[in-house]
Predict the structure.
Amino acid sequence: MGTIQDAFTSTDPKMVELRAQMFRQAGVLPRQGEAVVQGQMVMRTSEFQKNPVDEIGVQTLCTLQVPWGRSGRKKDVAQGMVQPHNPKAMYNGKRNPPDYALVDVAWTHNVYEEDELDFSTEDGVRLIGGTIGSRMLWNKADILLEMPTPASQPSRQSSSPPGGPSDDDDDDNGGKGNNNVGGPDVGYS
């Protein structure tokens, strides 16, 4: 283990991530797109990674999580709809913190109802259990987007075009028919 100065100036990827995590938790990260180098603000090049929440264009179903333990695990505490990023959005009369997103809460896990929020809701609620039906701020790093998969798309495409040999009702399988569209005809006895 080196000195504190080594920890703050190391370019080792693990140290960089630990340092960023520490600054995020302390709320002292520099503004997005800037880095601190020897007390001066310098524009970053490609170091900053965008959060998937910043990329959505429509409200999206999400699971809200909180970190626990030392290994970076997270527990699911609520579900809702995360709102698309709006740099001019206000919450409780102030601009939204850059690491937080607006979420409309639809469900909370009853085990975590007494857990405290980072920011109270606009109605003054401070506990997760009181947020159902409310809009609140949630840390983007703890939002898991639930990307829907279209139910109308078959899981397996037919190898024959419509009207081809596998699409007919004339079968050679003992009169069992071809009632399983898009799948094999399986007979059960």
User: Anything to note?
Assistant: The CA atoms of residues 32 and 90 lie 18 Å apart.
